[in-house]
Amino acid sequence: MDLATTAVSSPSAYSPSKDTVRNAHISGRAAYDRLVAEAEADHEGYWARLAREFITWKTPFTQVLDDSNAPFFKWFADGTLNASYNCLDRNIERGLGQKTALIFEADDGAVTQVTYAELLERTCRTANALRSLGVQKGDRVVIYMSMSVDGVVAMQACARIGAIHSVVFGGFSSQALRDRIADTGAVAVLTADQQVRGGKHLPLKAVVDDALALGGCDSVRHVLVTKRTGAEVPFNAPRDLWMADLLAVQPTTCEPEWVSAEHPLFLLYTSGSTGKPKGVQHSTGGYLLHAALTCKWTFDLKPEDVFWCTADIGWVTGHTYIAYGPLALGATEVVFEGVPTYPDAGRFWKMIQDHLVTVFYTAPTAIRSLIKAAESTPTAHPRNYDLSSLRILGSVGEPINPAAWEWYHQHIGGGRCPIVDTFWQTETGGHMITPLPGAHDLVPGSCSLPFPGIAADVVDEAGNPVPWGQGGILVVKKPWPAMIRNVWGDPERYKSSYYPQDFQGRYYLAGDGAIRDAVTGNFTITGRIDDVLNVSGHRMGTMEIESALVSCTTLVAEAAVVGRPDDTTGEAICAFVVLKGALPAGKEAAAVAGELRSWIAREIGPIAKPKDIRFAENLPKTRSGKIMRRLLRSVAKGETSTQDTSTLENPAILEQLGQAY
Ligand code: WT7
After folding, report:
1. What sequence ranges are listed for the domain Acetyl-coenzyme A synthetase N-terminal (predicted)?
2. From the alpha carbon of 317, which atom of ligand 1 is closest?
3. What residues contact 17, with CB distance under 8 A and at least 6 apart?
């Protein structure tokens, strides 16, 4: 493990304004401290109180935490509820039927507003359509759709009937989609004819066809297709059905399926350090509680807010902070189909202006690329837009470097909006370490302090606490309601990945390193301590990319993948490849590198394409035959290494590896 061991100095802090503090749900540091103390004094009592406040239960729970089969924790297990009821019907019962739930902006700028009453009706019809095809509680449904009202409706509809959804990001390839469909054993796939991004029409249904043709997906009985562009797509009756035909005959109401709090709400695949992506299984009750609670406290959401989370529903951020959290609070939110740079790099700023967005949540990668764009194209600069509606900004997915933080604060937030740098993971369900806007001083580069009730800490490799100011391993010492429940179909992997024996199975292991400020105790995340990369906020396993490369058996003999720092994407993928044929150079090497990139795009998706590909006759290995990854990381960074290379069989390869294509 590479752990940062140097103390982080405390750069200047920004205190929230008096108004921010006064009006915030969690008003002032003392209010935060009281919540932390309440949770410390009675962890279960604290979470039970909030679960009663934030969730409407069909049957109230009497049990809070069940740790009898740790680390397979259960929360509120004898309570029953329905997530879609909590996100839709409940708001209508509270008089919000005519309130706008979703402001959908299409790639071409067309805007559709959907009220809570309309969203409920669409959800009910879709839920009825699924039921009419025999989809039942506990069945898995794969959703392969882009950002759309229909995508959100599809998720809510599954929740309504107790089907377990698994959304697959629309940028994943047919191979990656097949693997996920096969692993879930889905009975249905929901998709659209095409998706539209940045003015381009891209396939969805055709990718589903390819995925199913790859085999191993016999569980799939139906593919339900929504029309987005109206493009002609191959249709394979009776398996394929047009969603519109099904919906036309469905009743507009649908009795929710009341499920146990522990009933899986969804599976979402994410990369680990070894093997295939794992299906992270989330619960209904604990998950929904944290989705609603963190939306309220971290974003300080109020009824009049317009919230915009720019994530895709294919990632966990799009689950918690688009499909569930804001709706559970009866909020109004923006859903955006397109990309930040189309028709130009002012798109985000224009949308904030047009929709009077008050709370904006995006990724550092987007900010960094928009900074570059604003500097090179004056018309894309945020100064051309009225961003005065904004009051809170959020960041997620990767560390935000202080320079990007300052720009975001000054140019987007006008120097007045607190930035919440939210640290969390697919597995954690929602925010774990984050400032609360009216409670914390903000320090660029630090995600500040644990959300009340989250027992995050930094320990050494034996699990002993390390003093503030010293780097270590980030752990969570107590279970929390929204935590991952299992790795779908692989409980052993759940245990070994998240409750490893290194800590006698006592602590949840996040997989990140962290350091606490010596004075304030503020957390700074120092990056993954395993072989997981974070490229543009997307998580990718190095092994996954390696196995995709070596599966190109006509070309590749051996491959190793490491990350290297990148100004825009945070980390960039760097692949070291030994070819079966002779070592190529110049144009020929560039051509082979191009072929390998296309191969990866087909095997996993374009997001996994290596930025650098380097060829050599061999990879540097230790005497015992282990690839010297640390050495490769230095080579990838362009560092002249001080590491011992005396064990290298063929030192000349270091020179070969210096050239990136
Ligand atoms: C990994 C989780 C969180 C939802 C989207 C990504 C990194 C995430 C931060 C942050 C520093 C961060 C960690 C984490 N990460 N947020 N605010 N500061 N690092 O979810 O794909 O499960 O990735 O993203 O390395 O482990 P994910």
Report:
1. 32-87
2. 4
3. 416
- 3-state SS class at 570: strand
Ligand 1, closest atom to CA 538? 21
Q: Which residues of the chain have pLDDT under 70?
A: 1-11, 640-644, 646-647, 649
Q: What's the pTM value of the predicted model, to 2 decimals?
A: 0.93
Cα–ligand 1 centroid distance for 537 (angstroms): 7
pLDDT tens per residue across span 499-512: 999 888 899 999 99
Residue type, 596: L
For the Cβ of 425 lying below 6 angstroms from any atom of ligand 1, the answer is yes
476 contacts 454 by C-beta, under 8 angstroms: yes
Phi-psi region of 232 (alpha: psi -120 to 50; beta: other; left: phi over 0): beta
449 within 8 A of 523, measured Cβ to Cβ: yes
Q: Which tens digits make up the pLDDT trace of 116-128?
A: 999 999 999 999 9
What are the residues whose beta carbons fall under 8 Å from the beta carbon of 32, sequence distance 6 or more? 26, 436, 439, 440, 449, 452
Compute the distance from residue 601 Cα to the ligand 1 centre, in Å: 23
**Tokens 């095409």 -> residue:** 194
Closest CA to ligand 1's atom 17:
423
As a whole number of Å, the CA-based R_g of the chain is: 24
Q: What is the model's pLDDT at position 4?
A: 42
Query: How many whole angstroms from 97 Cα to the centroid of ligand 1?
Result: 35
Q: How many Å lie between the centroid of ligand 1 and the Cα of residue 187?
A: 31
Residue nearest to atom 1 of ligand 1 (CA): 425
What mean pLDDT, rounded, does the chain reach? 94
Three-state SS string over 299-334 comes to CCCCCCCEEEECCCCCCHHHHHHHHHHHHHCCCEEE
What's the ipTM?
0.99
447 lines ligand 1 (CB under 6 A): yes
Ligand 1 neighbour 312 (Cβ under 6 A)? no
Looking at residue 1, what is its pLDDT? 38
Cross-strand pairs, 165: 141, 266
Q: From the CA of 461, how far away is ligand 1's center (Å)?
A: 21
Closest CA to 180 of 144, 209, 135: 144
pLDDT of residue 653: 82
Per-residue pLDDT, 6: 41
Helix pair angle (116-132, 149-161), 10° resolution: 60
Token couple for 227? 């029309």
Residue 399 C-alpha to ligand 1 middle, in angstroms? Answer: 8
Asked whether 398 lines ligand 1 (CB < 6 A), one says yes
Strand pairing report for 194-197 and 508-516: unpaired
Residue owning the nearest CA to atom 7 of ligand 1: 398
pLDDT reported for residue 191: 98
Which pLDDT does position 660 carry in this prediction?
A: 85
